[in-house]
C-alpha cells in the first residue's frame, strides 16, 4: 500500500485515549463482551492501532421484514454463546410484529489505524487467522478504519407473522447448525489470538 494518505496524528491520539477510556468503563460496568477483551487489549497495545467496537460472535432472533434491516427491526434475543432449543423455542412462540429470523454472526472488530502501513499489518494478521473478509472501510484525518470480520453469517426465517415457516420440530436441527456456525467464528477468533501472540482461551 502507498503511504500517500496521512492521518492527523494528534487527533488520532486524542481519539485513541477517548476510546481506550471508554473500553475500560464498558468493561467495569459489564457492557463489554468478555470473550473478546484480550484481543482488543492486544490490538490496542500495537503501535498505530486501537479498537473502536467489537463483537465476539452472537446468535440473535430478529423481528424484521428482512434480517439485514436496521430501521424498524427489533432484536428480541441475543447471546454470545451457544443456545438451546428451549431458549429459541420460548422466544419464537411469542407474537412477532413482522418476520422472525434466527441470525448468526461471527466475530467483528473495528480498528483505527494511524497509517496505511499499520492498517496493512493488522489486515495481514487477520487474514492469516482466516478472517479473509476483512478490509478498509474508510479513511479520514481521524484515522483509517479497518473491519476485521470472519464472514461467518447465517440468516434463517423462523416465522412470517404468526405462521411458522420452519416447523417447530425442525428447531433441533436449526439450533445445531447455528451453534456450529457460532463456534466456527469463535475458532477464527482463537486463531487471531494465536497470531497476535496471546494464545488460545
Your description of this structure?
- This protein has five helices and nine strands; from the N terminus they run ααβββαββαββββα.
- The chain is of the alpha+beta class and 201 residues long.
- The chain has one domain (9-196): SSo0622-like fold.
- The strands form two sheets. The chain has a five-stranded antiparallel beta sheet. The chain has a four-stranded antiparallel beta sheet with strand order 1-5-7-6.
- Helix 2 runs parallel beside helix 5.
- The protein is elongated.
- The chain starts with 8 loop residues before the first helix and ends in a 5-residue tail after the last helix.
- The model has no long low-confidence stretch (mean pLDDT 92).
- The tally of helices reads 5
Percentage of residues in helical conformation: 25-40%
Please summarize the sheet with the most strands: 5 strands, antiparallel
The count of DSSP E runs of length 2 or more, i.e. the number of strands, is 9
β-strand amount: 25-35%
The top level CATH class name: Alpha Beta
Separation of termini? 33 Å
CATH H-level superfamily title: tRNA wybutosine-synthesizing-like
Rg, alpha carbons: 19 Å
Instruction: Classify the fold: give the CATH topology.
Output: SSo0622-like fold
Structural class designation: alpha+beta
Shape: elongated
Question: Which helices and strands occur, and which strands form pairs?
Answer:
Elements lengths: L8 H21 L7 H8 L4 E7 L2 E6 L10 E6 L5 H8 L6 E7 L2 E6 L2 H13 L6 E6 L2 E7 L3 E8 L2 E2 L6 H26 L5
Antiparallel strand pairs: 1-5, 2-3, 2-4, 4-8, 5-7, 6-7, 8-9
Amino acid at each position: 500500500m502507498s503511504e500517500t494518505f496521512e492521518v492527523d496524528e494528534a487527533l488520532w491520539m486524542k481519539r485513541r485515549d477517548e476510546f481506550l477510556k471508554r473500553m475500560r468503563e464498558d468493561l467495569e460496568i459489564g457492557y463489554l463482551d468478555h470473550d473478546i477483551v484480550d484481543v482488543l487489549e492486544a490490538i490496542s497495545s500495537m503501535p498505530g492501532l486501537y479498537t473502536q467496537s467489537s463483537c465476539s460472535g452472537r446468535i440473535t432472533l430478529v423481528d424484521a421484514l428482512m434480517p439485514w434491516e436496521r430501521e424498524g427491526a427489533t432484536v428480541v434475543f441475543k447471546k454470545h454463546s451457544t443456545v438451546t432449543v428451549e431458549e429459541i423455542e420460548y422466544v419464537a412462540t411469542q407474537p412477532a410484529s413482522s418476520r422472525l429470523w434466527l441470525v448468526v454472526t461471527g466475530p467483528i472488530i473495528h480498528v483505527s489505524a494511524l497509517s496505511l502501513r499499520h492498517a496493512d499489518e493488522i489486515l495481514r494478521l487477520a487474514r492469516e487467522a482466516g478472517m479473509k473478509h476483512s478490509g478498509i472501510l474508510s479513511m479520514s484525518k481521524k484515522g483509517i478504519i479497518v473491519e476485521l470480520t470472519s464472514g461467518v453469517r447465517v440468516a434463517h426465517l423462523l416465522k412470517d407473522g404468526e405462521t411458522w415457516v420452519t416447523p417447530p420440530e425442525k428447531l433441533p436441527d436449526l439450533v445445531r447448525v447455528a451453534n456450529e456456525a457460532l463456534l466456527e467464528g469463535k475458532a477464527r477468533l482463537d486463531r487471531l489470538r494465536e497470531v497476535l501472540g496471546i494464545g488460545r482461551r
